[in-house]
Recover the amino acids of this structure.
C-alpha cells in the first residue's frame, strides 16, 4: 500500500521524499507560473496533461486495458515501478517539449471479414502518455462533436448508433448510403490532421508531442520504418484523432441536411430513394477526396435497402416498423466461434467446454441480445445444445460405451440399442430422441451453460 502512495506522489510532484532534479525544477516553476496566468477557460496545455489527478486516471486506465508490451518489452505490470524511479525526468521532458515517443510494434490481427488489420502497439509508457493527452483533449473537444457520432466517446455507444439508424429508417428514410473508407486509419493525412489539431490546441509542446506519436515509426522484423501517413490503431489517442478528422465529414453532412450515423470510420446516411442515395454517395466521395484526401472503398460501399446491409453487426427488417436483427455475417462468425470452442481437443471434459463456451456466450449476448428477433436467439440456443450433444456422442466413441451411457441416463433398452448401433453421424444423432432424453436441457443448465436467449444483463 505504501508503494502505491509513493507512486501517486511521484505522478503529482515529480519527486517522492527526495530533492527533485534540477531538470524537473525549472519546468515545474514554469508550470506554476502558467497556472497563475491561465485564463478561466483555457485551451489544453501540457501542464494539464501532467497534472496529478489526470495521470492517476490515465495510469488506472492503462492498467485496466492491459495489452501487450511494445518494442521495449516493458509490461503493464512493470510500469508503476518504472514510473516511481523515472517519472520526474519524464515529466520534465514533457514540460520542456523534449519527450520523444518510441516506434510502435507492428502486429497483424486477422479481420473477421477476411484479410488482416495492422495494429501499432506503443510502449506502455507511450500508452500512458497518450492516455493522459487523450483525456485532456477529449474533455475539451467532445462537446463540439456531432451528436450522431457515436464511436469512442463518453456516454455514446454502438447500441445508440444502431437505434438512431433504426429511427431514421422508421421515419421513411428507407435507403442507406453505406460508406466504407478505404484503409482509413492507415491513410490519414498527417498535415491535414495536425492542421485540425492546431485549430484547437495552441500549446506547441502538445502539438509537437501529438505529431511525434503520428510519425514515431513502426518496428517490424527488427527494422523501424517511418510513418508518413495514418494514425496507428492500438494507441489510446488514435480514436480521438480519427473522430477529429471525421468531424469535418460530420459537419458537412449536417450542413447539407442529411440524416446520418457515424461510428468511427463506419458511416451510414439515410435517404428516401435510390436516386437520392446515388447522388449523395457521389457528392460525399468528391468531398472526402478534396477536403480530407480520403478515398471511399467502392467495393464495400453501396446504396441499398438497410435490410441487405449491416451496421455494427446488425441489420433491420423491412416494413413500417423496422426491427433490429443480427446481420447474417455476425451469425456466421458466431457459429464459427462456437465450433472452434467445442472442438474435441486436449481431452477436455464437457464441463470445461461449457465453462469456456459460456464466457464467450455471455459477452456475445451482452452485445447482440440488443436484437429484436428473440426467435433467432432461441434457435441458436437449440443449435448450441445440439452441437454439445454431438460432442458428447463423439466422446462416448463406440457402440457398447454409447449403449451403456444411454441406459445409465434413462433411455429405454430398445431405443438405446437402436441409437448406439445407428450408422448416422454425430450431428444427425445429436437430434435424436435418445440423446434428448439422455442429455436434456436441464443437464446443460446444471453445467452452467449460458443461454444467448436469456435477458441481457442490466
Amino acid at each position: 500500500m505504501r508503494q502505491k502512495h509513493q507512486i501517486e506522489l511521484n505522478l503529482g510532484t515529480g519527486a517522492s521524499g527526495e530533492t527533485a532534479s534540477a531538470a524537473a525544477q525549472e519546468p515545474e516553476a514554469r508550470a506554476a507560473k502558467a497556472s497563475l496566468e491561465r485564463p478561466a477557460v483555457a485551451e489544453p496545455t501540457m501542464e494539464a496533461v501532467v497534472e496529478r489527478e489526470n495521470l492517476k486516471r490515465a495510469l488506472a486506465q492503462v492498467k485496466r486495458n492491459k495489452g501487450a508490451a511494445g518494442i521495449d518489452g516493458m509490461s503493464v505490470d512493470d510500469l508503476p515501478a518504472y514510473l516511481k524511479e523515472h517519472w520526474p525526468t519524464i515529466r520534465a521532458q514533457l514540460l520542456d517539449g523534449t519527450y520523444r515517443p518510441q516506434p510502435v510494434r507492428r502486429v497483424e490481427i486477422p479481420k473477421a471479414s477476411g484479410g488482416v488489420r495492422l495494429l501499432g502497439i506503443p510502449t506502455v509508457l507511450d500508452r500512458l502518455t497518450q492516455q493522459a493527452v487523450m483525456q485532456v483533449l477529449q474533455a475539451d473537444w467532445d462537446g463540439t462533436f456531432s451528436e450522431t457520432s457515436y464511436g469512442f466517446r463518453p456516454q455514446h455507444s454502438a447500441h445508440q448508433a444502431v437505434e438512431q439508424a433504426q429511427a431514421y429508417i422508421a421515419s421513411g428514410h428507407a435507403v442507406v448510403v453505406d460508406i466504407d473508407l478505404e484503409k482509413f486509419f492507415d491513410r490519414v493525412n498527417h498535415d491535414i490532421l495536425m492542421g485540425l489539431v492546431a485549430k484547437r490546441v495552441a500549446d506547441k509542446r502538445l502539438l509537437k508531442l501529438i505529431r511525434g506519436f503520428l510519425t514515431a515509426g513502426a518496428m517490424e522484423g527488427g527494422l523501424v520504418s517511418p510513418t508518413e501517413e495514418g494514425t496507428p490503431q492500438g494507441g489510446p489517442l488514435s480514436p480521438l484523432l480519427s473522430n477529429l478528422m471525421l468531424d469535418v465529414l460530420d459537419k458537412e453532412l449536417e450542413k447539407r441536411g442529411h440524416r446520418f450515423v457515424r461510428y468511427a470510420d463506419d458511416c451510414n446516411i439515410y435517404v428516401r430513394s435510390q436516386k437520392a442515395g446515388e447522388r449523395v454517395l457521389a457528392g460525399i466521395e468528391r468531398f472526402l477526396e478534396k477536403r480530407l484526401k480520403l478515398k471511399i472503398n467502392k467495393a464495400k460501399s453501396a446504396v441499398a435497402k438497410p435490410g441487405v446491409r449491416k451496421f455494427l453487426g446488425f441489420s433491420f427488417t423491412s416494413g413500417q416498423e423496422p426491427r433490429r436483427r443480427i446481420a447474417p455475417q455476425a451469425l456466421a462468425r458466431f457459429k464459427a466461434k462456437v465450433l472452434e470452442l467445442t472442438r474435441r481437443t486436449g481431452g477436455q471434459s464437457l464441463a470445461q467446454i461449457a465453462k469456456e463456451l459460456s464466457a464467450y456466450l455471455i459477452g456475445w449476448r451482452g452485445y447482440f441480445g440488443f436484437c429484436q428477433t428473440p426467435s433467432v436467439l432461441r434457435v441458436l440456443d437449440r443449435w448450441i445444445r445440439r452441437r454439445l450433444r454431438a460432442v458428447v456422442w463423439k466422446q462416448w466413441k463406440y457402440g457398447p460405451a454409447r449403449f451403456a451411457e444411454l441406459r445409465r441416463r434413462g433411455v429405454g433398452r430398445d431405443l438405446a440399442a437402436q441409437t448406439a448401433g445407428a450408422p448416422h453421424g454425430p450431428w444427425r444423432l445429436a437430434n435424436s430422441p435418445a440423446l434428448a432424453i439422455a442429455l436434456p436441457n436441464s443437464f446443460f443448465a446444471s453445467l452452467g451453460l449460458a443461454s444467448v436467449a436469456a435477458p441481457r444483463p442490466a
